[in-house]
Design a protein that fits this description.
disordered N terminus, about 110 residues
Length: about 110
């Protein structure tokens, strides 16, 4: 299988959906802390993060793709950094990957 067919970019990083078989997934998830300032201001919404993991499942970088507010994206990034991940595997070998993880902040859930 060529790198393009397997979803591996020229940088050697696989673009894979989160939580799929063999794809990266949480081994422990640290729920985001809803920022008090955001709750008081009535700010809610979805934060989409592109997370770069190494072949051990360690977070190497996070890119904010979508966010309604910086307070929410900062809280989402902090939660991802506190979480643990299973790495992406292909043919039994762990590989670096990047994946998109959505985190929703809902005022109803924050109460």
């Amino acid at each position: 299988m060529s790198p393009a067919q397997s979803g591996i970019s020229s940088s050697g990083v696989a673009d894979v959906p989160f939580g799929k078989p063999c794809g990266p997934a949480f081994t422990s998830f640290s729920r985001p802390v809803y920022p008090l300032q955001a709750r008081r201001a009535g700010i809610s919404g979805l934060v989409k993060l592109r997370v770069f993991l190494d072949d051990a499942g360690t977070v190497r970088d996070i890119e904010v793709l979508e966010s309604g507010h910086r307070l929410l994206s900062d809280a989402a990034c902090a939660a991802i950094r506190r979480s643990s991940f299973r790495p992406y595997t292909e043919n039994g070998k762990s590989l670096p990957s990047r994946t998109v993880i959505p985190i929703r902040f809902s005022l109803e859930q924050a109460l």
